[in-house]
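Data availability excerpt. The first of two example chains:
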Amino acid sequence: MSVVRIALVEDDSRHVQKITAYLERYRTEKGLAMTVRVFPDGEDIAENYKPEYDLILLDIQMRFMDGMTAARRIREKDREVILIFLTSMAGYAIQGYEVEALDFILKPVSCDVLDFAVRRRIC
């Protein structure tokens, strides 16, 4: 069984707690081998990015480097990774086409919506 490697790029600790709990629930229910690494800002993942993730859940609005800029940097090094944006503003969805984002999840993230998005992308 291969390990599903997920990066969660989110600056709000409340969202991090909720999303990691949802991912853990999904991992347990599906019997998956999964790792989740949390990055508190786009800058933290983009600066020294190595193509080692299967899926990146990426907040758009962050303090130092926004998610769109981080996604552009990631795409320079990794054309294969699946990007799913997390945002409270639906208007960003159009910009996601520039970086070939495969999905957008509106905040607050619900367990069912996250389960569906992850299942569509990694199973």
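And the second chain:
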Amino acid sequence: MTLLSDADIQACRIDLAAAFRWAVRHGLNEGICNHFSIDVGGDRFLVNPWGWHWSELTASSLLLADFDGKVLEGEGDIEPTAFYIHSRLHKACPQARVIMHTHMPYATALTMCEGGRIEPCEQKAIRLAQFTAYDDDYNGIALDNEEGDRMAAALGDKRILFLASHGIIVTHRSVAEAYDDLYYLERTCQVQVLARQSGLPLRKLPGQVVTRTQRQSSGDRASAPMHFASLKRVLDRDEPDYAA
């Protein structure tokens, strides 16, 4: 990862703070748990400090830490599971420049189901399923490098990882792209859970239709930067302190 300039790191801080604020608005947060991070080069990453509710996080309150767990800038500590998950994924998975780990309800509900998978039976699911890996072996709380390495191996070269009986991890190249995937992943899981509650079988789409739709959506997600820019405009109006 190329070492970012101070100006670029500040832009990352602002984007990450915006993602935290919107995760609260979208109901993706859980207490003071879970964590987002971004690799800024030089074996360093930005991450939220332990003990802060996401609605109060700002650009300046985020920690800059190294892959050994030392806090280089900011006040507070890194939550232990945040360090072991994020540092190891950043180190092992080149595509995981941004990492978002949540226990968001509908996606987590699928991780609790035997054989829980994103079923490619509607557009969002078709797009995201091709980038998703599954860790079906819950192994307790991530409190050592070995568990972080195990998760990294399960993610492989995919962008999204379902953690059995735990939650999900979404990774991408930018905060905008990662948050777009995070948001639509929860919506995907929500409609799948609601469809199953009807008692009717899920619609099975022809394989060639799934393949064609995946191909149609396999390029860069052009709308992700626009989506995130619109979210930041709302925050600029309603919660401008996020960028402080």
